[in-house]
Design a protein that fits this description.
The chain is α/β, with parallel strands linked by helices and 676 residues long. Among the domains are: 187-500, TIM Barrel, CATH 3.20.20; 525-674, Glycoside hydrolase family 3 C-terminal domain (Rossmann fold, 3-Layer(aba) Sandwich). It has helices at 122-125, 200-209, 224-238, 266-272, 275-290, 322-337, 369-384, 411-421, 436-439, 444-454, 465-480, 486-500, 514-524, 566-575, 596-604, 619-631, 664-674, and strands at 138-144, 147-154, 164-168, 171-175, 187-192, 211-216, 243-246, 296-297, 342-348, 389-392, 427-429, 459-461, 526-529, 543-549, 581-587, 607-612, 636-640, 655-658. It has an eight-stranded parallel beta sheet. Helix 6 (322-337) runs parallel beside helix 7, helix 10 (444-454) packs across helix 11 (465-480) and helix 13 (514-524) crosses helix 17 (664-674). The longest helix has 16 residues, at 275-290.
């Protein structure tokens, strides 16, 4: 062996009884900075008017300059220290014990660093941390004979860092925790990823922004197994837990093409009117989502519909009766949260009376305070049922905020009404800040800051990665310059920790419950208008023209089970058993294509089944409906798939039937009612 280099041999530190004359000083022996005083550190000298902080850290390793980055420990190891109290127990040479009896023992010579046990899985040795932490319950601690040992944190530190204790030589030492304003750890953002893989780009986005949550969209989903792998890999690569959220309302809003039950949606549930069915639906959704790692479902919609057509809500709502919406919503929430998936009631304070779609522009809700009480009733019921989160709406409510600020940016609505009057203690979530109602008046980062200052805890940015990075930096700056108070930040992180308490059971995905979905769909079918064609149909070889919407035109906007072409294939298979001569013709939805082919087929047929996909919204469907009503009104059966309000466009002689949705189970129930 070679001889050691010349010079004094560095002394190992000894942790023991603090010096009586200098409590609060660095307990290291001489060999560090002159006079044995603590090194200059921004945490120790924060400036006038601020309380000093103390870092628990080892001495300088040989050959490293003072303040080497490897000595900077976990953020939760920083503590406010009382100058009159010792930093360590008043016992000579008291070592820090390993937390828990199952921890591996130290190396016998005391010099070797702790190494993971190769026989134990990584998850068992290093559990994923909570929000704002790098370790879930443990952080790297102090030095014992030149070796880092784990420091065990106890108490509510894992819930937002509001307090912690150190386990020292079998004693519980309580210390006041610093505000966990660690911007490089967690920010109150829910972001959308660009693809279905936990690739370098996705991990970089989450690391740089510190986003607390990921919103899974259709572009991120291929199958339940793929989503399960995505959620696990993201958490493993980041080393922390995430809130995985999804819009899984059923009916109109659905992200999975297969693998999960495609439920009819709220309008069908409301028409069925049975809270037990709503509870079972919420329960089944939670079982299926939880199995693939999703712990927050942005449902149910609790908007109470007004008497007129609402383009952004309609079949997403349980109905027009506040009592019915309250009962069904509370039952759905209890069913879902009872199976460990958090629910989100939306869109507070209610936008059922909107006449515009917030995805495109900002709606104005001209309701009085008395009228708004109808819309607030379901949210009061949700709070009473213990809903974990509430999402606000992008709309203006002059009766609730005379400044006419959109509720997203209204402190009187979010902080005053939601927190104060309703007493809501859970997480307040903004709607997507990329929607037209927001971007037409301000940038996404500015909107995010304004929404946070209004009282939100989680800000959704589903698109535009550049805006995600800019928003994260803007929030950091706002915390640094005091626009966002540290206490406010702590409270938000604590509420987000509450969402992580909804930790669903892992396991194999259950098979889709098609029987439950079909039961709801059958209870929702109704004849909207008794016209010239009686129902059910008595077919005996008649010619039937079947006009089906071309879903290819809206494949980027809506999700269809099995893809946009699959619904027509299933329809043909079911109608093949009818005793009739069938012809199938597609009709345009959004394109400028002519409905001439559909009109010619209808003229040659004895009966025309026109499956209408919201004529009030889509011009292609409106042109086809107008042409058919003009040419063959007494031989026309309008099957209203998406919007029951299309009945207002029909002549009295046109037979109309609707199922409050266009999921496969609803189409099946509709055909059963047309020909029993």
């Amino acid at each position: 062996m070679g001889r050691p280099p010349p010079g004094p041999r560095p002394r190992r530190p000894r942790l023991g009884r603090p010096r009586p004359a200098g409590r609060g000083q660095d307990p290291r022996p001489p060999g560090g900075p002159a006079g044995g005083q603590p090194r200059a550190d921004p945490a120790l000298h924060p400036g006038p008017g601020r309380e000093p902080q103390v870092r628990l850290r080892p001495a300088d390793p040989p050959g490293q300059p003072p303040g080497h980055p490897e000595q900077l420990h976990h953020p939760l190891a920083r503590r406010r220290a009382d100058p009159q109290q010792p930093l360590l127990p008043d016992r000579p040479h008291a070592p820090l014990l390993h937390p828990g009896p199952a921890r591996p023992q130290a190396h016998r010579d005391g010099d070797a660093p702790h190494r993971p046990d190769p026989e134990r899985p990584a998850q068992a040795q290093h559990p994923l941390p909570r929000l704002g932490q790098r370790g879930r319950h443990r952080a790297q601690g102090d030095l014992v004979r030149g070796r880092l040992l784990p420091l065990q944190l106890r108490g509510p530190a894992h819930r937002g860092g509001l307090g912690a204790g150190l386990r020292l030589h079998g004693l519980q030492l309580r210390l006041r925790a610093l505000p966990p304003v660690q911007m490089n750890d967690t920010t109150p953002l829910m972001v959308g990823l660009e693809g279905p893989r936990a690739d370098r780009k996705a991990v970089h986005l989450l690391k740089e922004t510190g986003a607390a949550s990921v919103l899974l969209l259709a572009r991120n989903i291929e199958s339940p197994a793929q989503v399960r792998g995505l959620t696990r890999e993201l958490e493993q690569r980041l080393g922390r837990r995430l809130i995985f959220a999804i819009d899984h309302e059923g009916g109109w809003v659905l992200r999975f093409m297969s693998g999960l039950t495609a439920f009819p949606g709220n309008a069908a549930l409301g028409k069925a009117g049975d809270p037990a069915l709503a509870r079972k639906t919420g329960q089944r959704m939670a079982e299926e989502l939880g199995a693939i790692g999703i712990n927050l479902n942005l449902a149910p919609v609790l908007d109470v519909l007004g008497p007129k057509y609402n383009p952004g809500i309609h079949i997403r709502s349980f109905g027009q009766d506040p009592a019915l919406v309250s009962r069904m919503g509370a039952a759905f929430i209890c069913g879902q949260q009872g199976h460990r998936v958090a629910a989100c009631a939306k869109h507070f304070p209610g936008k059922g009376a909107a006449r515009k779609d917030a995805h495109l522009t900002l709606p104005l809700i001209p309701c009085s305070k008395r009228e708004m009480s109808r819309h607030l009733a379901p949210f009061k019921a949700a709070v009473k049922a213990g809903v974990a989160s509430i999402m606000s709406s992008h709309a203006v409510y002059p009766a609730l905020d005379p400044s006419k600020a959109p509720s997203t940016f209204s402190k009187p609505i979010i902080t005053g009404l939601l927190r104060g009057s309703l007493g809501f203690k859970g997480a307040a979530i903004s709607d997507d800040l990329c929607m037209g109602a927001v971007t037409e008046s301000r940038s996404i980062p500015e909107a995010a800051l304004d929404a946070y200052l209004a009282g939100h805890d989680l800000l959704i940015i589903a698109h535009v990665p550049e805006a995600m990075f800019e928003t994260a930096e803007l929030l950091k700056t706002a915390v640094a310059d005091g626009r966002i108070a540290a206490r406010r930040w702590r409270e938000s992180l604590a509420r987000l920790e509450g969402l992580l308490e909804f930790h669903p059971k892992s396991g194999p995905s259950p098979k889709p419950d098609e029987a439950l979905a079909l039961k709801v769909a059958r209870m929702a079918v109704e004849v909207a208008n008794k016209g010239a064609v009686p129902l059910p149909l008595l077919l005996q070889g008649q010619k039937v023209a079947v006009l089906w919407p071309s879903f290819k035109e809206v494949r980027e906007r809506f999700t269809f089970e099995g893809g946009p072409e699959a619904p027509l294939k299933r329809l043909k298979a079911r109608l093949s058993r009818w005793p009739a001569k069938l012809s199938f013709v597609p009709t345009p939805i959004v394109s400028e294509a002519s409905a001439k082919a559909a009109l010619e087929a209808a003229k040659k047929a004895d009966i025309t089944l026109f499956f209408c996909f919201e004529a009030m919204r889509f011009p292609g469907q409106k042109r086809a409906l107008d042409a058919l009503q003009k040419a063959v009104p007494e031989r026309l059966v309008a099957c209203l798939l998406r919007n029951p309000w299309d009945r207002e466009l029909l002549k009295s002689c046109v037979t109309a039937i609707h199922a409050y949705g266009y999921r496969d189970c609803q189409v099946k129930a509709l055909l059963e009612a047309i020909r029993q």
